[in-house]
Amino acid sequence: MQALVIVAHGSHLNPDSSAPTYNHADTIREVGAFDEVRTGFWKEEPSIREVLRTVESDEVYVVPLFISEGYFTEQVIPRELRLDGWDVSDWDSDGLSASHVTLTADDVSEKTVHYCGPVGTHGAMTDVIVRRAETVTGDPDVGDGFGLAVVGHGTERNENSAKAIEYHADRIRELDRFDEVQALYMDEEPEVDDVADFFESDDIVVVPLFIADGFHTQEDIPEDMGLTDDYRNGYDVPASVEGHRIWYAGAVGTEGLMADVVLERAADAGADIGDALELVRERTRKTPLAGD
Predict the structure, then answer these.
(1) Is residue 290 part of a domain?
(2) Is 41 helix (H, G, I), strand (E, B) or coil?
(3) Which residue from 44, 73, 171, 212 puts its CA 20 to 30 A from 15's CA?
(4) Would the pTM count as exceeding 0.85?
């Protein structure tokens, strides 16, 4: 038997924080790729510390629903899972290349735990960002005449924070689908506050590389970009800012296709997922676009 465990941050303050995790778990559960699909959270129940005890399967694939490699993927999650012999050097990562490592957990030593890198640094996330642009514009062929901004938090405390943003912006730029592609940040240059300054395109899709909609994606970024003076009053999509139409997509992690990235991570670690990827892509492609 094989199990999938999706671990995420969660929040005591934002009840919607865990919604994407549960939604992606449900999608994967429905396609039957695993005998069990479980979720665990740092700030909610069920906790990461207890989740392996809820699993009956002897092969467990743990996929962190996080954007970048860093404190949570390298310290918090391995500690809470009690991974025996964990050493971050086992990943031999440059901040983008963490794949998986196979270990046991101290209190469930009979299980083999395949601990995977975060979803945010996987190449399949590029497709999710593009899908997010399609969803918010209501156009499955969006690109020509549009600019695309991939937005991250950014922080001087963790250099890996910006790497995932730049990685996906570069990959999308290489697709030559959008007229312009720019990586922007909340807490470092170039800043999302000045989004209109970085594009010549009249239409700009803005996709935040965050797992869930919360304080940053629902309040900070819309106000910083000038979509609204007060997030509580809402804003138009698209909204007019300095002569540009801003199509603000909200957190990329709420896109249904994220379930594909979770499956890709598990498959890379050796999980037998059969035709689950094709089924997930087919089901999430049927998700209504804006305006449908």
Answers:
(1) no
(2) strand
(3) 73
(4) yes
